Amino acid sequence: MIESPLLTDVRLEFDGVNAFELEPSVIPDVFAERPVIVTGRYVPGTGGRAILSGRSAGREQVYELGFTAQASRNPAIKRLWARERLTSWMDGRIDGRLPRDVEGRVEEIVEHSLEYQVLSPWTAFVAVDEVVRTDGQAERVEQPAPRRAEPRSGGLGFTPLPTVIQLAPVLASLHPGAVDQGPERIFKSIDEPDGRLVLVLGEVDEFLDHASRYWINQWSASHVVGNIHSYAQLLDVLERHPNRGNGPWKELVIISHASEWKGLSLPVFLGGEIASPLALSSSIETGRLDPLGIEVIDGESRIRIEGCGVGRRADLLESIARLFGPQTLANIYAYPGLVAYSEGADGRLFREDVPYISSIVQSNLAIESKVDELTKIMTREYGVMGWGQWMHKLYPVNVEMVLEGSATGYRDADRLARTHSPVRQQLAELGLDVSSLDWAITPGNHREPSRLVGTGYIVVVRPELQFED
Questions:
Q1: What pLDDT score does 98 carry?
Q2: Paired strand residues for 56
Q3: Residues 344 and 445 in one domain
Q4: Are 101 and 225 within one domain?
Q5: Closest residue by Cα to residue 340 from 208, 201, 459
Q6: 250-286 pLDDT, tens per residue?
Q7: 16: in domain
Q8: Is 60 exceeded by the pLDDT of residue 2?
Q9: What is the DSSP annotation of 297-354?
Q10: Final residue of a structural domain among 116, 142, 166
């Protein structure tokens, strides 16, 4: 884990070997199952020792390896070093210059790129077929490029499940204070409305702050509206904001903490619980929320949801689309992975789509094998795209439901969970299945009722991001 490195203050030295230009020049801490690869150059024909030292569990550790400096016949090894060297230049790690100042050494970078046949921002390698074709249409082909590591700060808009999920025999009603929408907003007038708007949902934190500033740079400050804490407020802003002009919205970006299990971290009304798809649908069917009309959002309006994992659940998108009117479903989009916003050392703001994979295990004994399985899948599917180290996160799932009467009347917890429709229905709202959890019945006493309890672990494997230490 990040908190427990196996070796710190790592140093690599050579005795009897003329080695130089090592990459990385400063070796990072070593963690379990995360190899650190060091490349470099040396003068062939010499031999000696490679001495690796560092601190482990508070003690100095030294490892010695015999080293024979023979000329390598594998050109891939040479290019591996050359690519790492180029990355160091681009990251400003060699002489302390930031990436934005790299242009002053373009000639040196181009020479290095051509000599070792590694790609740089100022070079390109073209494959020429022996047969020249001049007919037909040109076709654009996207090729994945290596990701450059830059020091950044930032955040993920990911919201895990609560520690304990309380189920009820009857689905919980809306919050009793649902009519409270807060004080009426006053919007500044817009000189030239263009039908575009960014809506930032929830209390501002590092993720939402970076997201807001990113879109201010992309569009303008007048396009970004924050301090939205309920779906009711969201609809109010969309209906009354002057940037819409006299017609329907053209393009909307909605940013929120979210997950594939809870959806957007937003209640229907102020003070309520995070709204499930059923809660949103019920609020519309009961008339407590009025969907927007086609004069506000029509079939041409483009809506982008910036919330982690929301794109994996069609029912989540459908429930949100219902608030905007049935005509919007075809034009609402959410990336199925994670969404990250960050800021580089030079002040540039970044937005990234981050892939991930998740699964649920019933027992902690199955976590390690599941992590290995998911990591192999991610490496196979996304390794070619330049993502680096993989990491995993665990989110315990603890579902409880109060049972009526004594626990002696309930003997088979699995059967009870499968046959009790409120359990199935509420788990489906979370994107979970009864069979994915381990069920048990905890007997009550004169003070506490008996409970049906389901437990498990959500395992998420994703890349380790540059702003995570």
A1: 43
A2: 59
A3: no
A4: no
A5: 208
A6: 999 999 999 998 889 999 998 888 888 888 888 888 9
A7: yes
A8: no
A9: S-TT-EEEEE-TTGGG-HHHHHHHHHHH-GGGGGGEEE-SSEEEEEEETTS-EEEEEE
A10: 116
Residue 424's contacts (CB-CB under 8 Å, 6 or more residues apart) are: 417, 418, 434
- The SS3 assignment for 377 reads helix
Half-sphere exposure of 317 (CA within 13 A, CB side): 21
Q: What percent of the chain has pLDDT over 70?
A: 73
Residue 264 and residue 259: Cα distance in Å, rounded? 7
Q: Looking at the structure, tell me whether residues 382 and 323 fall in a common domain.
A: no
Q: Is the pTM of this model over 0.90?
A: no
Domain range enclosing 383:
355-463
Lowest mean pLDDT among 226-230, 305-309, 372-376, 430-434: 430-434
Token pair of 35, please? 């190899």
360 & 340 share domain: no
Q: What's the mean pLDDT in 322-336?
A: 81
Highest mean pLDDT among 84-93, 149-158, 206-215: 206-215
409 and 422 in a single domain? The answer is: yes
Of 9-13, 197-201, 214-218, 360-364, highest mean pLDDT? 197-201
Q: Are 451 and 429 members of one domain?
A: yes
Instruction: Note whether residue 130 is domain-resident.
Output: no
- Tell whether the torsion through CA atoms of 69, 73, 76 and 78 is positive or negative: positive
Tokens encoding 69: 């400096």
pLDDT in tens, 358-396: 999 998 889 999 999 999 998 888 765 566 688 999 989
Other CB atoms closer than 10 Å to residue 380's CB: what's the count? 9
The DSSP secondary-structure symbol of 149 reads: P
Q: Are residues 199 and 281 in the same domain?
A: yes
User: Residue 352's beta-bridge partner residues?
Assistant: 340
Number of domains in the chain: 3
User: 29 and 68 in one domain?
Assistant: yes
Average pLDDT over residues 421-440: 85
Burial (CB count <10 Å: 0-12, 13-18, 19+), residue 387: buried
Give a yes or no: residue 337 inside a domain: yes
Burial string for 191-215 (b: 16+ CB within 10 Å, else e) reads eebebbbbbbbbeeeebbbbbbbbb
Task: State which amino acid sits at residue 353.
Answer: D
Residue 27 forms beta bridges with which residues? none
Taking Cα atoms as reference points, which of 229, 238, 249, 231 lies closest to residue 187? 238
pLDDT at 400: 87
